[in-house]
Amino acid sequence: MKRTSITSIIVAFLVVLWVYASLSKLLDFDRSRNQMLNQVFSNSIAKILAWMVPTAELITSALLLFSKTKLFGLYASAFLLLNFTVYIGLVMSNIFGRIPCSCGGVLEKMSWSQHLTFNIFFIAITSMAIFFMEQEKAFAEKTFTSEKGGSQQA
């Protein structure tokens, strides 16, 4: 399978993930906000995060839809996933003394270890897509530079 096909499949999975996660929070916003208020953050931060997290997820999914912003969307996905994964790791390490959850939909049904595995899987495939796109970008730049240099010599 070509790298561009693999990247497209990974991007499709990420778009579905971010749209699903954000909509599950926004469609049941009162519940999601209350779950965020149950987090270890102060209430003022939790109120901001209740809007900021699903908004960031939607923006990230939108970035993934366009070729000019796809790579940035992949980096944004990796950033979000890494932050969520670190948070899960801290929760599982009993750093906070309690185990809150503000995940929505199907993700809420997962155990913490399943959620951690899920996130690590998505970090891995997102990293692979970033690697493929960066290689493609470098190849395109090298090709453009050599073509530009070749036309100037003629």
Tell me about this structure.
- By secondary structure, the chain is mainly α.
- The chain has helices spanning 3-27, 29-37, 43-64, 70-92, 112-153.
- The longest helix has 42 residues, at 112-153.
What is this entry, summarized?
This protein has helices at 3-27, 29-37, 43-64, 70-92, 112-153. It is mainly alpha-helical and 154 residues long.
List keywords for this structure.
5 helices
Count of helical stretches: 5
Strand content: under 5%
Number of beta-strand segments:
0
Integer average pLDDT: 88
Biggest β-sheet, characterized?
Answer: none
> How would you describe the shape?
elongated
- End-to-end CA span: 38 Å
Uncertain parts? none
Describe the secondary-structure layout.
Elements: H1 3-27, H2 29-37, H3 43-64, H4 70-92, H5 112-153
Helix pairs in contact: 1-2, 1-3, 1-5, 2-3, 3-4, 4-5
